[in-house]
Amino acid sequence: MKITFLGGAGSVTGSKYLVQTDSTQILVDCGLFQGYKSLRERNWQSLPVDIEKLDAVVLTHAHLDHSGYIPVLYKKGYRKPVITHHATKDLCSILLPDSGHIQEEDVKYLIKHRLSKHENPQALYTRKEAEQSLSIFQTVDFEETFSVGDIELRLQSAGHILGAASVILESEGKRIGFSGDVGRPDDVFMRPPNQLPELDLLLLESTYGNRQHERTDPGQQLANIVNETMHKGGVVLIPSFAVGRAQTVMHLLAELMNKGDIARVPVYLDSPMAINVSDIYCRYAGQHRLTQQQCKAMCGVATYTKSVEESKAIARQVYPHIIIAGSGMATGGRILHHMKRLLAEHSTTVLFTGYQAGGTRGAKMQQGVDSVKIHGKWIPVRARIEVLHALSGHGDYLDIEQWLADSDLRDNTKIQLIHGDPDALEGMKDYLSRNTAFNINVSEHRKSLMV
User: Fold this and answer.
1) Are 65 and 104 in contact (CB under 8 A)?
2) Residue 8 near residue 28 (C-beta atoms within 8 A)
3) How far is it, in rounded angstroms, from Cα 447 to Cα 223?
């Protein structure tokens, strides 16, 4: 069996892993590259996969760095199944068309304002192409065994977001695990990841391989930030991923308001995608910690602004308020329009709630830049920049180590580190090498591994 790392190796984005046996080929994850321009340009490069010989795509979860390349594959003629959990398909039915729509809107803006260096800028795929790609999705339950050629597979819950899974596959006498994105044992919202079975090889995410999460109360930190900003008469801007993070933030705001820890200020969920996702979370109650009553409160805490006109109308609000909008790394979406208007105000707080990939506006603002480029213009950053560290949906290296210790892995299990920036990969390798008996190696982009 051969595994080729076509993404998510040496970086925390673009996850794609080609698994080949003598008679079968599958792709585990099919993600977009995000962040640095050098990474984004890989989305336009030819994928070294013979689509005619590809038997299936198996998705760990719906986030675009794991699923967002599927419409490109479909556009190139792929018509075999994309196999994943039911909740992941439901989320992809929102995320993928929205991704195509945002790309189309970005192209229109570039053409209108003559900002592109290309004579005829194109979207990687359109909303319609993304919608068409959903027709090849097939869904399975957690722990349901299925086969693709001579490979037997199952998905087991990984926490993180709805439908998120680790993929366990067996073929040619070997059992291999793909961790996917691994959730936290003490997540505010999601249940902890299931333990792994005995494996010959584990491909393990390393997003927080060199960092620990702050063990602070995210509700208290959020309350302090909201109260301080409201006292100044300002606006809290929360760039948020539509899947997972927006729902967690709304749940915390609802709880804080109910307890009287913050005032019942207006909250705007300025993301049609996140609005639909919130409904899905209420349908899959068994995968998260919230009661039906808490789900109802979460969905009712915000005013939903679906149309562009409703979004623009928020700018007319003169009193303190909170805006939750995508994208979570400030790489696109409606949050950019609010930032253009509010970043220069000292009374504004920008509150990031998750990992910021290198090269994104979110990462640059966290690093303290004095201006960011939005829609071709440099916008001064005078706003207060805060990070709600305790809301990350990824386990840090201590969480991951405990997950491995609680699982049924042998001491000689081989671990191949994936899905991490170089420093995180090196940090995770050093830590696990010192503190476990596992055989640890780091994957390289477009390199192959024989199992």
Assistant:
1) no
2) no
3) 47
If we measure between CA atoms, which residue out of 258, 291, 329 comes closest to residue 64? Answer: 329
Angle of helix 292-300 relative to helix 245-259, nearest 10 degrees?
A: 90
**323 vs 235: CA distance, rounded Å:** 7
pLDDT digits (tens, 9 = 90+) for 175-191: 999 999 999 999 988 99
Q: Which residues, in sequence order, are CB contacts of 3 under 8 Å at separation 6+? A: 17, 18, 19, 20, 176, 203, 416, 448, 449, 451
How far is Cα 185 from Cα 394, in angstroms, rounded to an integer? 10
Confidence of residue 60 (pLDDT cuts 50, 70, 90): very high
Alpha-carbon distance of 197 to 166, in angstroms, equals 11
0.70 cut: is pTM over it? yes
The CA-atom distances, in angstroms, between 117 and each of 16, 43, 59, 113, 133 are 29, 18, 34, 12, 30
Bridge partners (DSSP) listed for residue 425: none
Which pLDDT score is estimated for 110? 79
Q: Judge whether 130 and 71 are in contact, CB under 8 Å.
A: yes
Domains of the chain: 2-211+393-450 (3.60.15.10), 218-391 (3.40.50.10890)
Can you tell me which residue has the tokens 């927080």?
Answer: 208
Half-sphere exposure of 128 (CA within 13 A, CB side): 0
User: ω into residue 11 within 30 of 0, thus cis?
Assistant: no
